[in-house]
Amino acid sequence: MQKKQLDSQIKQSKADLHESYDQLAKSVAAYATAETQYKAVQAKYAAAQGRLAAAKAADVVAASKLKAAEQALSTAQADVAEGEQQIAEKQALAGRAVRSAYQQQNSLVGLTIVLRGASPADVATGMQVQRNVFGIQGNAITNLNNAQAQLANRRAKLAAAERIVAEQRAEAARTVQEVTKLTQQVAADKAEAAKVAAARMVAYKAAEKEKNSELAHYQSLVAERNRVQQILVARALAEKAAAARRKAAAEAAERAKAKREKRPPRKIPDPPGNDGGLIWPIRTYITSPYGMRFHPILHYWKLHDGTDFGGGCGTPIRAAASGVVTDRYYNGGYGNRVFISHGVIDGSSLTTVYNHLSRYKARVGQRVSKGQIIGYVGTTGYSTGCHLHFMVYQDGRVVNPMKWL
Questions:
Q1: 8, 296 in Cβ contact below 8 A?
Q2: Average pLDDT for 28-36
Q3: From CA 144, how far away is CA 90, in angstroms rounded?
Q4: Stretch among 196-205, 253-262, 330-339 having the lowest mean pLDDT
Q5: Is 185 exposed, middle or buried (0-12, 13-18, 19+ CB in 10 A)?
Q6: Is the dihedral of CA 36, 42, 43, 44 positive or negative?
Q7: Under a CB-based contact definition with an 8 Å cutoff, are residues 255 and 356 in contact?
Q8: Please, what is the Cα angle at 303 between 379 and 211, to 5 degrees?
Q9: Distance, CA of 35 to CA of 191 (rounded, Å)
Q10: For residue range 36-76, what is the model confidence (pLDDT) as tens digits?
Q11: What is the pTM of this model?
Q12: Is residue 315 within 8 Å of 341, Cβ to Cβ?
């Protein structure tokens, strides 16, 4: 969006000002592009830094989770080892109980006692021993079964702990990899930002240089215009004074003649217009009219002090009216210039000026006729392309040429 606006601004400016600041427009456009790139890479760098910070935070969390999972795994492994030891102990106890029962022949003990003719007391004692042996055996087996169930539960917890540890290790590895990748990306973005910043500074300095150059050219044009204006104002006063003297002399002569002829004096008319006024110096199109312009880059108002006519370099330029070539010279702003004084027309001293010529056809002091070729279109001076910058000075001051064409 910003580039589109800048392109539109430059296009409008070139159409309006036309006089010259092509390189300035390019430099400002280059700086605007560099500024856009700089902001974009800054945003990219900041985003990468944010992602890196998030990845580092995730890495800390993942490491904490892995540590907790490994601690849980260690506890589960210890529980399983303890369970296996308990199983071994209970298996040994149950084995001793079984061997004891076997040695006692289980339920045959009582029968042996009876068959040997033991007393009732012995019989009772034998039966009690049998019951004790069987009780020990049953308890040992029950304890063994319980221990085996607990061991199975602990082994299940161990398997779950091992799975969680594996998952946390994988997650920790991923976060480490992401941190490494983003660290490299941040370094690359930082280097790119530095490179773009350097290019931006170069473009900025170039734009500033062109701005200063443009301002200097404009000030030179204003100075030249003011210098010429002072000369032409004085010349206009002299021309009008001379015309007034000629008219006064003519009126005096008419009065004298009328007195001799004994008749009323006739009114002496003002000098007639110059062959019916001015013609276009080139029969073509207007590329930029006379008037004030706002410079979109330097932000000041500038007078476009003439009418620009389009035309290829070498196109013949014709005198807008009959007159005398008073000046012909080169100026850094206006290029090759030709001045033609047309005398007093309709009460105003009139001078036309033709600028940016590629070469001259008329010489200083030469009287030229309306429509006579006095030079050729060019692009000399402070100009962006082949065209004629046509100016009109009325009574020594620059005016809109179209009021006379």
A1: no
A2: 80
A3: 5
A4: 196-205
A5: middle
A6: positive
A7: no
A8: 70
A9: 16
A10: 877 888 787 788 788 788 888 887 887 888 788 878 878 87
A11: 0.57
A12: no
Strands 316-318 and 373-376: antiparallel
Query: Measured between alpha carbons, how far is 348 from 394 in angstroms, rounded to an integer?
Result: 6
User: Which residue type sits at 309?
Assistant: F
At 284, the amino acid letter reads: T
CA distance 374 to 368: 8
Length of the chain: 405
φ and ψ at 299, to 5 degrees?
60, 55
Q: Tokens 């029968």 appear where?
A: 111
Distance CA 146, CA 9 (A): 89
Give the DSSP H or E segment for 221: helix 120-260
Residue 316 corresponds to which tokens in the numbers above? 């013949």
The answer to whether 400 and 291 have CB atoms below 8 angstroms apart is: yes
3-state helix, strand, coil in the chain (%, to 5): 60, 15, 20
